[in-house]
Design goal:
Alkaline Phosphatase, subunit A, globular, alpha/beta, eight-stranded mixed beta sheet, binds zinc ion, four-stranded antiparallel beta sheet
């Protein structure tokens, strides 16, 4: 039987050799797939109600294939502290950056940052000074690329990020990438007749600007976390086109989603926050936040009636749950909106006061209400 089988194989081989076309030359090995990236994309001043198929088609399409967190919150409507929360997982009163870097506030030097935790070569490409290195947001990054002052178009940050990914170590190994776009932040540019129309144009421009980066990141099978640092007041309060003075839901409620290859699409309605970003970047589950704490970046009674004292130190503190929220106004008392758990009142009153910025002059310190301290 064995001989018969071998003979059959030989005959078959000869027949194949006689009838088959010449074997084609072997194809060259395809280029190895570029390594995946762990990516954080932040869009400044992006309202939750401007995250939709109409407002942000590229981001919305990606979010439909990932995990969308529709109940996500920022602890503050200020760029530097909110980004510090995303990079550390800590709240502003924990990581120490209670106001923007240009006011002298810094990230505490002893708190861990996600760029170190991930242990990957890390690059940051930001579009405005408050997201820049001053104050310590650059800690853990091998390259930190941004404007020396003011802002720059998001396409520059995107182009620089794509160039960085295309060569050297990020082209050969997994990397951590942070890209920050500033388009929706005022002053709004565009052709619209109203501020709201021009704001929508800026949001759409940010979305379109990100398209080539999203294509490259998804091609590489990356893990992508997309979030806003805070939203914006348009027409809801006496002072529109701002966020730093407000605790309005339009400021505190932010878009947040994660995309990774093979992810089961889902919409999560449990409350999460920007302090969960480091966990999401690592593929971990967010924490459970039945209660969320937040504060305004400053108070200005003409913009947020009732808040006091004026300035960086005079903040509204907020503790919210599913029933409503407690708002504590220093020197003016604590009141509720809706029906929050009564026990949360003490939480709203517990946020530590804002320290004067490091290196503040006597005049600045006095302006913050710290005379004699
Ligand atoms: Zn911002």
């Amino acid at each position: 039987m064995l001989w018969a089988l071998m003979l059959q194989i030989v005959i078959s081989s000869l027949l194949w050799a006689c009838t088959a076309a010449p074997a084609p030359a072997p194809a060259p090995d395809p280029a190895p797939a570029p390594p995946p990236v762990v990516a954080l994309i932040t869009i400044d001043t992006w309202r939750f109600d401007h995250f939709s198929a109409q407002d942000t088609p590229n981001l919305w399409a990606l979010a439909q294939q990932g995990q969308r967190y529709d109940n996500a919150w920022t602890p503050i409507g200020l760029t530097s502290p909110a980004h510090a929360t995303m990079l550390t997982g800590l709240m502003p009163w924990e990581h120490g950056m209670r106001a923007n870097n240009h006011h002298g506030y810094r990230l505490r030097s002893d708190v861990p940052v996600i760029a170190d935790t991930l242990g990957l070569v890390a690059g940051a490409f930001v579009s405005a000074y408050p997201a820049g290195p001053a104050g310590g947001l650059d800690r853990g990054f091998d390259i930190f690329d941004g404007p020396d002052s003011g802002e720059r178009p998001g396409r520059i940050a995107v182009n620089h990020a794509l160039a960085w990914l295309s060569k050297g170590e990020p082209a050969q190994h997994s990397a951590f990438l942070w890209v920050h776009l500033y388009e929706p932040h005022g002053p709004y540019k565009g052709k619209g007749a109203t501020d709201s129309e021009r704001y929508s144009e800026e949001v759409a421009l940010a979305d379109a600007t990100l398209a080539p980066l999203l294509a490259e990141l998804t091609r590489r099978g990356s893990r992508i976390v997309v979030a806003a640092d805070h939203g914006e007041v348009l027409t809801e309060e006496p002072c529109g086109r701002q966020h730093e003075r407000s605790i309005a839901p339009q400021v505190l409620h932010v878009p947040l989603f994660v995309w990774a290859p093979g992810m089961v699409p889902s919409v999560i309605t449990a409350r999460v926050g920007l302090s969960d970003v480091p966990a999401l970047l690592q593929g971990l589950a967010p924490a459970s936040h039945s209660v969320w704490l937040a504060e305004s970046g400053m108070c200005e009674p003409s913009c947020a009636p009732g808040c006091a004292p004026t300035g960086l130190a005079g903040r509204d503190a907020v503790a919210m749950d599913d029933g409503g929220r407690w708002i504590h106004r220093p020197g003016l008392g604590t009141f509720s909106e809706g029906k929050p758990d009564p026990a949360l009142r003490a939480l709203a009153e517990s946020l530590p006061p804002v320290p004067p910025p490091i290196g503040a002059s006597a005049a600045e310190t006095a302006a913050l209400g710290y005379v004699g301290e």
